Structure formats: C-alpha cells, structure tokens
DNA sequence: GTGAATGGTGCGGTGTATATACCTTTGAAG
DNA sequence: CTTCAAAGGTATATACACCGCACCATTCAC
C-alpha cells in the first residue's frame, strides 16, 4: 500500500487518479438491459408499441439473440416489456409502466440513504446543466432542416399536451431531441444517461401541476430560441428551466 | 391490446433508435488498457513516474491482477510502460513516450481515411465545446479552496513553461483539472475521453510555437476568470480558446 | 388449413476473467 | 554477507458469459 512514497512526485497530487475508479465491469447483458430500459423509460418507444423482432434487434445491438433474450426476459419480469408469440407477435412495451422502485426519500430509522446521496444529486444536476445548456446553445447555432424544425415543434406540443402520467416520458423525449439537434452523436447517449439518473431522483418527489405548467412555458422559450437561431437565448432559457428542477429536487431531497 | 397503433405511432420517427448503436462490447481487458493509456497520455502520471504496485492497482481498478498484467504487458510492448522487478521495482511510465501511431492525414492513394472522418472531427469538437465551456463556467461559479486555487495556478504555470515535447500532456492536465474543479465527478471521465479523441486528431497535425504562445495567453485568461469567479468570462475565454484549436484542426484535416 | 413471422428452447463451443498459490528478482537494512 | 520484504513473473484450475446454430411452438392473415 502507500503509493507516492519516495518523492512526492511533481505531478502527483493533482487530481486524478483517473485510475482509481473501478473499471465498469459492464456485462454485455447488463448493458443491453440498460439500453432497453432507456428506450422505455425515456419514451423512445411509447407504451403499447412494439420493439423490433428479437433477431433484428439483436443484430442492431451487436449482441447475440441469447443475450438479448435474457435482457428482455429480465425486463419482462420487471413489468416493462411483454412478449407475444406467433405471427404479428413480438415484444411490446407495457401499456402501463411499473412505477420504478422508489428510493425512499425519508430515512426510516436514520440509516444512510441507500443510493441517493447529496453528492449524487449535485453530480447529476451539475452534469445535466453542462450538457443540456451546451446542447441547447449548440442546437440553436445550427441550421436545422425543415423536418427537424417540425419534429422539434411537435415534440414541444406533445410535452404541452401530455397528462401527468406521461409527462416524465414526453419531457425526456423533448430534451433528448434537443440534444440530438446539437449534431454530436456522442452527446446523445451522455444526455440519455444523465437523464436516466435524473429521472431516478425525480421519481422520489411528487409531480405538481403548477410545475408542469411552468415547465411547458419554459420549453416553449427554449424551442423558440433554437428555432430562431439565438444560441445565447436558448442557453439562458435552458439554464432557467433546469434551475427550476434543481431547486425542486434540492428542496425535497437535501 | 396496444392502444394507439391505429395511427402511425406519434412517437415513432423521432430520433432515436438509441437502440441502434452497437453495444460497446467492452472487454475488461481493453477497458483496462484504455484507462492506463489515458493515465499516461493525458499526463496524469508523468514520464519516469511509477504506477501503483500491480496488486494494489488491480484492486483499485476492480480487476484481477491477471487482466491488469495483460494490459500492462500490452502497453509495455507498445513502449508506454516499463516494468522492473525486485524490491523498489514497479511499473513505470516510459521516460520517452512513443509517438502514437499517426493516422495519415493525407490519403496516399485516395483511399478513404482509415478512421479520421469529417463526422468524427465535428463530433469531437462539438462535444468538447459543450463539455469544456460548461466545465469552465461551472468551475468559475464555485468557491474554490486555497489548495485548489494554487493547484490550478501551478497547472497553468506548468503549461506555460512546458516545452513543445511535453506541451500536449501538460495542456491536457490543465484542461482536465478545470473539469475537476467543476465539482461533478462524472464529468471528469467524459472530459478525459473527449480529450483522448481530440489528441488523436491533434497528433495528425503539426504543433506550431505561435499557436502554443497564443494558447498560453488564453489559458491565463481562463484561469484568471475562474479564480475571480466570473462564469460568463470563463466560458467566453474557453470558447475562444477551443475555437482556435477547432479552426486549426478543420484547416488541416477537412 | 396452410404458410409465414415471431417468440421459445436446447446445446455445444470458445474465450475471458477470476482466484490462488508459488517462484524469481532486487536492493536496503542489519 | 546474510536476510528479508516488496515487487514483478508464472502456472493452473474454475466459472461463466457470450455466441451461433438448429429446431420447436404459437399465432394470425389469407
């Protein structure tokens, strides 16, 4: 043990045992599960809709059908997916999604929160701020094709029209699509990841209608700023929007 | 079953077969190699310095010693690491790092670029802009401890004093440390990844002294803005700084 | 009833990762 | 000069994740 013994080396002491972190240990299986979960939880495929056939999906994901099936099975067991066989069968997203395992916001006996620490909250909110504000700014700085513009607008409308039950999902989609408009393919999975983490936190607090209304108004400002090509305005609007959620979360959880 | 299928589903056609992308297929072994490579290429451990003992490092990384050794062996073969046995031995970073396999910037026969496409360049630069500008802004918005402030400043000085041979490495460290000051642990690996991708591109173009001098000046502006707590100024300075590199890259490679 | 598309099942092969134990080298301390 | 501790080097056995393939069972349009 004890590392930097002889010389306190000139470069040591900076950060960053980037080393330190445990290597992901990402099973192909677990990663596949996460992918599917994202697809469902972020609303990329709506409740009741069908996934591609197992053989096709496995090919798309670059995974053996066996592994994919294990993943599907595990998610089916959790109530997210339903498989039907036979012609015109397939694997479908549950019509009614299971409410995810809510991490208790209150500690029953004073025990430390199982997985919802203050550091996690800060981490997620900070990262989200960086990613989403940057995405909005970048998207606003690009010239968008007519179909892109229409799709953005319809995503906005969908969010505005959504009921409380589907709001989380539709909202996620809108934010994700803004990220996609930024034009960096690598950005989208990062946004998806941080959004998944955020949703996990949001699941622990109530969803209030006034907040939704407020969010919708902000969404509109963001989208309009993007459509009219004003990066600074888009960034500012997004920052405000995220700030609201951040306040809400910190208020309830910290 | 299935509710809204009558209509060509409202949610389809959006982006994002987030599904589509192939699952990473990340070997523990390859991931370990990447980690070590980052540690060396980004200057987290300087040439000549020692890595933790195999057994310790394996534990830190959450990897079996066997796998770690394979990774070390492969990097030793490539000239990045050197292992010495016996008491006070260990694994060390090569005193002189191998110049990485330069992806030819010119196509010899008109064949398509092996791995350096215009899309990759855009992707990296866009993502970098989002991450680093956001990091600078966030870092400037935090109250920094005295040691943090000193370390930031000394990183700046190190970059200013660096010779052309070590510039890439020291520059990476500075940028990475700014990211660390943003206070989001999850952000750091993302910055490291995008920086690795960027360095791969930079390796394909010459390093000019005037550019270095200019960069140093910009670094100073960024750091000062962070130290004086001016988020907008920090973001703007960082954006300018990155813009320079972006122009350079696009000029040489696109 | 027939055919086609789909999920369900079984099996064997291969490579990767782990765990454990032991050997070898080196240099400082006694 | 001997000893010892700390490091890398080696060997072997085990578990299982992932894959590819072939085949079965179910369902619905026609």
From TrEMBL, chains A, B:
Keywords: DNA-binding, Transcription, Transcription regulation. Residues 1-20 are annotated as: Disordered. It holds the Pfam family GntR. It comes from the Bacteria. GO terms for molecular function: DNA binding; DNA-binding transcription factor activity. Residues 26-96 form the HTH gntR-type domain. This is FadR family transcriptional regulator. CDD domains: WHTH_GntR. Gene3D superfamilies: GntR ligand-binding domain-like (1.20.120.530), Winged helix-like DNA-binding domain superfamily/Winged helix DNA-binding domain (1.10.10.10).
């Amino acid at each position: 043990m004890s590392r930097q013994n002889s010389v306190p080396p000139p470069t040591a002491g900076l950060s960053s045992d980037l080393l330190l972190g445990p290597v992901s240990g990402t099973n192909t299986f677990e990663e596949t599960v996460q992918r599917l979960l994202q697809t469902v939880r972020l609303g990329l495929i709506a409740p009741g809709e069908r996934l591609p056939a197992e053989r096709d999906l496995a090919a798309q994901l670059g995974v053996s059908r066996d592994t994919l099936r294990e993943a599907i099975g595990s998610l089916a067991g959790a109530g997210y997916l339903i498989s039907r066989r036979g012609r015109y069968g397939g694997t479908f997203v549950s019509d009614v999604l299971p409410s995810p395992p809510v991490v208790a916001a209150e500690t029953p006996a004073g025990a430390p929160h199982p997985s919802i620490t203050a550091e996690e909250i800060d981490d997620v909110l900070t990262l989200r701020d960086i990613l989403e504000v940057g995405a909005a700014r970048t998207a606003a700085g690009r010239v968008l094709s007519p179909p892109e513009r229409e799709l953005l607008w319809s995503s906005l409308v969908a969010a505005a029209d959504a009921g409380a039950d589907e709001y989380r999902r539709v909202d996620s989609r809108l934010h994700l699509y803004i990220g996609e408009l930024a034009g960096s393919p690598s950005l989208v999975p990062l946004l998806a990841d941080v959004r998944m983490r955020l949703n996990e936190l949001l699941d622990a607090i109530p969803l209030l209608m006034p907040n939704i209304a407020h969010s919708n108004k902000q969404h509109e400002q963001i989208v309009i700023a993007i459509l009219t090509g004003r990066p600074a305005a888009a960034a500012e609007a997004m920052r405000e929007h995220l700030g609201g959620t951040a306040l809400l979360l910190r208020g309830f959880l910290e």
